[in-house]
Amino acid sequence: MIKIGERKCDNLEFYDWIRRGLERKEKGEVSEALHCFWRAIDCNPLNSLAWFNLGVLYGEQGDIEKALECNFKATEVNPSDAQSWINLAYLLRMKGECKDAVDCLIKATQLSPLNNVAWSNLGCVYKKTGDLQKAIKCLNKARELNPLDNLVWSNLGIAYNKAGDIEKVIKCLNTAKVLNPVDPLVWSNLGILYDKQGDVENAIDCLRKAAELGPSMASVWFNLGTIYEKAGDMTSASDCLKKAFSLDEYDDMRLVSDLVSREGQES
Q: How many CA atoms lie within 13 A of 60 on its CB side?
């Protein structure tokens, strides 16, 4: 357990270590960046900025336990920083601790009611727990705050899909596609949706576009192959399925009936 000590240097030295850490991080020098952030903490453990950046860096390296510990410290020394609560919730959700993640995100929305990321992430956690009414409400709040966020529109479409409101699903996914036409996941979800409606032609068009934009996404090739098989084009089906099975991401394959979401943002 990390213990918080007393401040040992002035602000100038503290922020110099933060600056060095961010520079090292930008260059991909992870060990050096960690050293700099820890030196900043040694200077002033009561400033949440160092804990925040250290938590983000540990999270990026996949060390969730250390990332959580640092983010807990960030919220402890500065409980009024909404972004620290957002990042803490993100990590808690990765561990499957959705109830605690909801508590953190509610805190973030209270501290920063105009923060669309906090509302979006809260909606995604509610969606994950099956509370679709709250999920849709929060995602719509995020959409109102930033109507140009394609991720919000995409996740809102997923929530409406789970709620069975297909008309709104199509509207949301098409809006997400307009806002970010190079996102293969949006095209893939549209293709899956069209397939569920029996519109094979549009399903194939969308999934071909998804494959063009995301050629390493095994699930896209798998879904495209499956739909070609339904359409009776066995040659194209075989080619697509062979492509899917050849990719490293094959273990992450989704069934053709599943719409896939990127659930939330760390910052």
A: 15
What does the pLDDT look like over 29-51, one tens digit per residue?
999 999 999 999 999 999 999 99
Structural Rg of the chain based on CA atoms: 22
Encode pLDDT of 207-256 as tens digits: 999 999 999 998 899 999 999 999 999 999 999 999 998 885 544 443 33
Residue 133 lies in a domain: no
Question: Does residue 111 lie in a domain region?
Answer: no
Closest alpha carbon to 40 in 82, 75, 70, 76: 70
Last residue of one domain, picked from the residues 78, 93, 128: 78
Distances (CA, A) of 94 to 21, 70, 247: 25, 16, 25
Among the listed residues 66, 3, 15, 76, the one whose alpha carbon sits nearest the alpha carbon of residue 40: 15
**For residue 103, is it within any domain?**
no
Q: How far is CA 209 from CA 8, 134, 136, in A?
A: 57, 33, 28
pTM: 0.81
State how many domains the chain has: 2
155 Cβ partners below 8 Å, 6+ apart?
Answer: 120, 123, 124, 127, 139, 261, 262, 263
User: Of 29, 51, 78, at which residue does a domain stop?
Assistant: 78
Cα distance between residue 241 and residue 246, in whole Å: 9
Phi and psi for 104 in degrees, rounded to 5? -65, -40
Range of the domain at 37: 1-78
User: What token pair was written down for 77?
Assistant: 């020394």
Q: Write b or e for each residue in 86-121: b if 16 or more Cβ atoms lie within 10 A of its Cβ, otherwise e.
A: bbbbbbbbbeeebebbbebbebbbebbeebbbbbbb
- For residue 241, which phi and psi values (nearest 5 degrees)? -70, -35
